[in-house]
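Q: Here's a chain of 306 amino acids. Please give me its 3D structure as tokens.
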Amino acid sequence: MPAIELDGVTKRFGDVTALRGVDMAVDEGEVFGFLGPNGAGKTTTIDILLDYVRPTAGSARVFGHDVREDPRAVRERTGVLPEGFDVYERLTGRQHLAFVRESKAAGDDVDAVFERVGLEPDAADRKTGGYSRGMKQRLVLGMALVGDPDLLILDEPSTGLDPNGARRMRQIVREEAEDGTTVFFSSHILSQVEAVCDRVAILQDGEVVATDTVEGLRSAVDVGSVLTVSLAAPVDGVAEAAERVDGVESARSDGATVTVTGAGDEKMAVLTAIEDAGGDVEDFSVEEASLDELFAAYTDRTGDEQ
């Protein structure tokens, strides 16, 4: 049974259509990246999963529960780090975690949660009004973790975090996944998504334009990899030979280095062509298209089709 199922979900706010027939399934135990620019509809999707807003059409289920008919069952199994969260500035960090622990009837050690999210022990008894943005982000992440939820929804989780905080957040996501938790990771920061997610859905203007692994996304669009070949010595004509291989976009020589763009699945054919042209291949490396390039390719293609 999928952890999350969206079936034809549409949401309109007056004349504005935030979501357009979204279909999506997230497997239990999966780290699922939900990727899109600001305003694409990511937060609206999360609000529907938590029954904060109702869809205009379609349905949403979490662990088999219809979110409109049984929202309590959904929230009991879900920990959430929302994008636009607020903290109670007159309460301490410890009081925040104690409140969540009591509301979930959980037995988490507050000090252990603070340590896990990277907050210093003395911060637990300080009022959160004196917290930095990054400290508040860590606190709310800790609140989401209380009660060992089966589903963890993270909406822009690295906002306000320094590099160490972002690295710790990624480590926590991996630990939760290893423990069987489903993680729904919504972000516009592509490097964060690529670092932790099993699969990725790309949302553009309220529509899911692609869902796959990062490798699957690479193979589905024309975003070429770069093959760099190191030769024992410079040889005339090797770049031209590589460029004649089907699928290769371009090739150039710089001394004993040949750089080939767009080799795709024909990397071995390119190496063979270089050797047949007299090149003595000593080493080679492949740089795949980044998730940033994939995102641009999908969103640009969608824009061209509209």
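Q: Can you summarize the key feature?
A: DSSP finds eleven helices and 14 strands in the chain.
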